[in-house]
Amino acid sequence: MKLxxxxxxxxxxxxxxxxxxxxxxxxxxxxxxxxxxxxxxMLGWLDVxxxxxxxxxxxxxxxxxxxxxxxxxxxxxxxxxxxxxxTLKHAFFDSIHKKEKIKTFVCDNIDSDGFISLLDALDLxxxxxxxxxxxxxxxxTLAQMSVVLKLLSDKKxxxxxxIIVTTTKDNDLYQFAIKNNFxxxxxxxxxxxxxxxxxxxxxxxxxxxxLNIKELLSGAKMARENAKKYDYTNISYTSAYINYKALxxxxxxxxxMPYSDRLMLVSDYFAQLWxxxxxxxFNRSGEEIFSGQTPIKALGVTDQxxxxxxxxxxxxxxxxxxxxxxxxxxxxxxxxxxxxxxxLNNIELSTLLNSEFxxxxxxxxxxxxxxxSIIIDKIDEKxxxxxxxxxxxxxxxxxxxxxxxxxNQNGVxxxxxxxxxxxxxxxxxxxxxxxxxxxxxxxxIGY
Length: 447
Ligand code: PA5
Fold this sequence. Notes:
40% of the residues are buried. The radius of gyration is 23 Å and the shape is globular. The N and C termini lie far apart (53 Å). With 447 residues, the protein is α/β, with parallel strands linked by helices. It has three domains: 221 residues, Glucose-6-phosphate isomerase like protein, domain 1 (Rossmann fold), CATH 3.40.50; 168 residues, Rossmann fold; 25 residues, no CATH class. The site of 5-phosphoarabinonic acid (PA5) has 15 residues, from loops.
């Protein structure tokens, strides 16, 4: 994996910035704080990639048995418990219409139009569900599980043959799963949702889909090794540093723009990491700071015809992270003569995409808008492991630079509590009163 940073160095807001000049002293301190686990007790994700060979073999064996027995595999989860798998599934299967070894669905919403209609279309006797929730108490995921259990029971199908639960040892869901003889995979307590794709949260579903999990982890390890370096060749640190400096200079938005259909959902994966980890009311010293850099999801070339106008002529408050893949598995030579478009003859489709990628970068750079690119050779398990771990590391470094706790999500918890209150869960009287007031003051206009 490489970073192309020349258009950061030449951007006037960074005033003669050279990545070689990034302070090594400061970098060493931050790298050590993270790798020596001085700043948080939620850094288990750094080690979760060191799985023993024997354990990986067991997971692969289990995955193989699942594929022999079932036709469909449905992941039930939300946020960090779904996004990693969804991103990887899209990169390897959906976007190039390649079949997973077992037909896989990742359900991370409770809109019945989507969820119930999917279940209606599946033969439940041939379907296995993986309920994934670290806390074991997320309403959305438990509601999905409740639907599935009811449908299985209505159809007199024994649930224990159709449910796998991935959660933290000893929570209520864990106990429920054991009691009901469900197969259970553990999520370590010190691995938070959005940093959990390399734990059983992601590894088990990836193995079931038929991805090479050993390669995925070996890619992640490469990114971790790189992130331990104390100079600018540490690309996660350098990325965080650039984004942090941009934020200091008023670039409060970060556009993440893969030029790749297959990597389209990496934007969602990154957006969650960036938003949930860095959007914080307080810093580590308890001062109110309302920090964050808003991630904006874009896709090249598609959004050149939708968002680029704003990016070039709108507010100068955005830094750009592009993502580019060198190798394509499909390409096509344009050799049908369209008389009024001669220039589109005898070129590869990928050449057009590359030219547009270059053109977008040039238009932004010529307007002095900061942008840089992450470049990967090809989309395989090793590169994807490396890319997702690099994004986790970049987020962790950025959190340290901003002096915040990147591993909590109090803002999300608040909405979880309100949901429970509005459903009438016991206690929560203050929240129930707020909900009542909120409902009373609704004001509808329109037709
Ligand atoms: O990153 C996070 O911690 C969150 O996005 C969680 O993954 C999300 O809220 C789901 O939580 P849980 O896995 O406990 O169901």
